[in-house]
Amino acid sequence: MTLGTAVIVGVGPGIGLAIAHTFAHAGHPVAMLARDAVKLRAYAAELASTGQEVRGYAADAGDPDDLRGAIHRAITELGAPDLLVYNAGVRREDSPLGGDDQDWADVTAVNVLGARVAADAVLPELRGGRGSLLFTGGGYALSPSKEHASLSVGKAALRAYVHVLHDQLAGTGVHATTVTITRDIGGGEARFDPAVLAQAYLDLHQQPAGAWQPELMRY
Questions:
Q1: Which end of the chain, C or N, has fewer beta carbons within 10 A?
Q2: By C-alpha distance, which of 198, 107, 117 is closest to 155?
Q3: How far apart are CA 73 and CA 86, in angstroms?
C-alpha cells in the first residue's frame, strides 16, 4: 500500500532528522522543512538509500506565509500527507523580565504560532481526511524555568493548544498528540535517544483510534 507524505517541520541533526529517517524507512515520502537549505540537501542525500522520495524545503517556521507556502509546495510535489510532525522550536536562555520585545515575539512565533499554522495547512490536505498531527513538547511545559522563560511559556502554550486541538478533532479520523519530552534528547539515557524517540512518533501515528490521547509523556 502506498503511504502518504510525512511533513516534518523543524529538521535538524537530532530528533528531527531521526524522525525523518524513521518515517522514510517505514515507507513514507518525507518533506523536511527547516531554515537551512544546505543542511536539508545533505539530509536528503543521506536518506536517499531508504528508497523513498525525500525532499527538503527551506522555510522559516516563524513566518506564517513562508511556512504555509513551503508546506503547500511539499504537498504538491510529494503528494497528500498522512501526517504532520511539528518539531520546530527556539531554545535560549532568557528571563521573564526585560529583554527585547521583538525577540519574544519572534520566539513565540516559532514555538506556538508556527504549530497552529502548520496544522491549519496540513489538516485539510490529509489523505482521505484521516491522519496524525504530532507535536514535540517539552518538560518546561510542566516545570517552567526562569532561566528559559520564553521556551517555558512556549511549551506550555503548545501543550494547551494540542490538547484543545485533540478535543476539536475527536471523531474526525484525525488525532493530535503532543510528545512531552522531559529530559535532554541524546543526553545518554537510552529512552531519550533520538532514534528511540522517533519510533514513538511512528507508533503514535500507527495507533488504533481507540488508543488516541492528547499527550505522550516521556519522563
A1: N
A2: 107
A3: 17
pTM to 2 decimals?
0.97
Query: What b/e sequence results for 154-168 when a residue is b if at least 16 CB atoms lie within 10 Å of its CB, and e otherwise?
Result: bbbbbbebbbebbee
Sheet holding 30-34, edge to edge: 54-58, 30-34, 5-9, 81-86, 131-138, 174-181, 215-218
Q: Tell me: the pLDDT tens digits for 174-213?
A: 999 999 999 889 777 888 999 999 999 999 999 999 999 9
What confidence tens digit (pLDDT) does each residue in 57-113 have?
A: 999 999 999 999 999 999 999 999 999 999 999 999 999 998 899 999 999 999 999
Nearest CA-CA partner of 137 in 202, 193, 183: 183
Tell me the CA end-to-end span of the chain in Å, nearest whole number.
35
Show the cell assigned to 3.
503511504
- DSSP codes joined into one string, the chain: -PPPEEEEE---TTHHHHHHHHHHHTT--EEEEES-HHHHHHHHHHGGGGSS-EEEEE--TT-HHHHHHHHHHHHHHH-SEEEEEE-------B-SSSS-HHHHHHHHIIIIIHHHHHHHHHGGGSGGG-EEEEEEEEGGGTS--TTBHHHHHHHHHHHHHHHHHHHHTTTTTEEEEEEEE-S-TTSS-GGGSHHHHHHHHHHHHH--GGG--SEEEE-
